């Protein structure tokens, strides 16, 4: 869809910005060993992310989107009850991690891939994407994993729906 | 590894505990009222399930709880993982509850693995058995890998991961038992692994990494 005001090259988020990554956990096929630590899969492009070029891992600009809004937007697409966790990642950390592995990583505003129903939801204008995290961007698969693991290592948990909370009724 | 082999592994584990010089149980017994001979009978059951009756629910409960109460919660959990399927629902609830007090996370993980084929059509019982076989191969004597963060990769392989502030290890097990692995030292920012290539045995390089995680 065309979003008013979205023209030309994508706008990069500044280094001092923080982006929010929402992770979906299906309790029936996800087991949390209790470390509370994310791993590289938290920043792995989904099959949906890979449909668009350049591949962008979906995140939100913390300036424009709250963790609750980010979860609500992700939940819109859920086919079954899920639990969600929200991590915060400083853009400068993402860029630095990319440089360490010789990969250009950037976070850009990305409103063009939002479906209309979601585009009007509160906080949707903060939708962004992290570029450079797909396997093809690295020299080999393990380097891509290492980069994504570094991002997981740098991010901070900001919100987690508890085990006791009925999935789907989180926020 | 099929269910029978799993039973065999559990029975062998019980027998090993019974004869361990460090075990709290008397030599020749695994837990109150269960003799080593009965455990051997259980082992023979694994080889020919239709010929010899397995232990009763009550005997299995006694074996597992007795082992846990003797201070061997890990062994009890392993035995339970193999024998749980042969007990009735009431016994299952009772033993699950009792064991969770001894070793909650590991037991919870074992039960999660048991239930996975019922919850996700991409995963079969044989696939879970294959993952358990890799975990068994990764163990070293008394030391084994603790509960792993577990999920399913997009290609259908079973993703097992162990994380700390310093280290990360992933083993992705495919249905045929082959697996790939990836390790990262989060402080030194170095990594190693198979780059997605599948292997069938624990390599010396992976063995060195495993020592960072075995407990």
Shape of chain B: globular
Rg over alpha carbons of chain A: 15 Å
Rg of chain B, please?
Answer: 18 Å
The major β-sheet of chain B equals: 5 strands, antiparallel
Content of β-strand of chain A: 15-25%
What is the number of E strands of chain A? 6
Strand order of the largest sheet of chain A: 4-5-2-1-3-6
Overall pLDDT of chain A? 88
How many β strands of chain B by DSSP?
7
Class from secondary-structure proportions of chain B: alpha+beta
Low-confidence stretches of chain B: 1-52
- Tell me what portion of residues of chain B adopts beta-strand conformation: 15-25%
**Average predicted confidence as pLDDT of chain B:** 78
Low-confidence stretches of chain A: 1-5, 167-171
Describe the protein in words.
The complex is a heterodimer of chains A (171) and B (215). Mean pLDDT of chain A is 88; it is low at 1-5 and 167-171. Chain A has 4 helices and 6 strands, in the order E-E-H-E-H-E-H-E-H-E. Chain A has helices at 67-76, 91-100, 116-119, 141-154; strands spanning 18-25, 56-61, 83-90, 106-109, 127-131, 156-160. The two termini of chain A are 28 Å apart. In chain B, 48% of the residues lie in helices and 15% in strands. Chain B contains 8 helices and 7 strands. Chain A binds chain B through residues 28-35, 37-41, 47, 100, 140-143, 145-146, 149-150, 153, and chain B through 105, 108-109, 112-113, 116, 119-120, 123, 146-152, 154, 159, 161-165, 168, 170, 182, 184, 186, 189, 191-196.
List keywords for this structure.
heterodimer, A: about 170 residues, alpha+beta, six-stranded antiparallel beta sheet, about 20% strand, globular, disordered N terminus, disordered C terminus, B: about 220 residues, two-stranded antiparallel ribbon
Q: Concise description?
A:
Chain A is an alpha+beta fold. Chain A is 22% helix and 21% strand.
List the helices and strands and how they pair.
The complex is a heterodimer of chains A (171) and B (215).
Chain A: E1 18-25, E2 56-61, H1 67-76, E3 83-90, H2 91-100, E4 106-109, H3 116-119, E5 127-131, H4 141-154, E6 156-160
Antiparallel strand pairs in A: 1-2, 1-3, 2-5, 3-6, 4-5
Chain B: H1 3-19, E1 29-31, E2 34-35, H2 36-47, H3 57-69, H4 73-83, H5 89-102, H6 104-119, H7 125-138, E3 149-152, E4 158-163, E5 167-173, E6 179-185, E7 190-193, H8 204-210
Antiparallel strand pairs in B: 1-2, 3-4, 4-5, 5-6, 6-7
């Amino acid at each position: 869809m065309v979003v008013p005001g979205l023209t030309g090259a994508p706008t990069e988020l500044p280094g001092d910005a923080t982006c929010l990554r929402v992770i979906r956990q299906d309790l029936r096929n996800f087991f949390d060993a209790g470390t509370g630590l994310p791993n590289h899969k938290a920043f792995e492009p989904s099959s949906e992310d890979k449909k668009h070029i350049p591949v962008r891992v979906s995140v939100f600009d913390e300036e424009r989107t709250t963790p609750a809004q980010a979860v609500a937007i992700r939940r819109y697409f859920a086919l079954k009850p899920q639990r969600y966790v929200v991590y915060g990642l400083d853009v400068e950390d993402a860029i630095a991690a990319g440089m360490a592995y010789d990969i250009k990583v950037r976070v850009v505003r990305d409103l063009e891939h939002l479906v209309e129903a979601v585009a009007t939801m509160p906080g949707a204008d903060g939708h962004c994407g992290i570029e450079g995290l797909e396997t093809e961007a690295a020299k080999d698969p393990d380097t891509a994993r290492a980069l994504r693991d570094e991002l997981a290592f740098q991010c901070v948990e900001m919100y987690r729906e508890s085990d006791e909370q009925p999935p789907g009724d989180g926020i | 590894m099929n269910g029978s082999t799993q039973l065999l592994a559990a029975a062998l584990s019980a027998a090993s505990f019974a004869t361990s010089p460090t075990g709290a149980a008397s030599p020749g017994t695994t837990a109150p009222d269960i003799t080593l001979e009965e455990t051997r009978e259980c082992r023979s059951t694994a080889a020919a399930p239709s010929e010899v009756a397995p232990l009763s629910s009550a005997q299995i409960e006694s074996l597992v709880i007795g082992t846990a109460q003797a201070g061997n919660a890990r062994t009890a959990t392993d035995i339970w993982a193999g024998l749980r399927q042969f007990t009735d629902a009431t016994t299952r609830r009772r033993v699950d509850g009792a064991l969770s007090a001894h070793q909650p996370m590991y037991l919870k993980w074992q039960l999660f693995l048991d239930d996975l084929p019922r919850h996700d059509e991409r995963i079969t019982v044989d696939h879970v058995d294959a993952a358990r076989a890799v975990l068994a191969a990764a163990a070293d004597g008394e030391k084994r890998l603790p509960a792993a963060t577990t999920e399913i990769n997009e290609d259908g392989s079973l993703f097992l991961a162990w994380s700390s502030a310093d280290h990360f290890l992933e083993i992705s097990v495919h249905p045929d038992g082959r697996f790939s692995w990836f390790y990262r030292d989060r402080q030194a920012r170095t990594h190693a692994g198979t780059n997605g290539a599948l292997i069938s045995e624990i390599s010396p390089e992976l063995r060195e990494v495993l020592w960072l995680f075995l407990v």
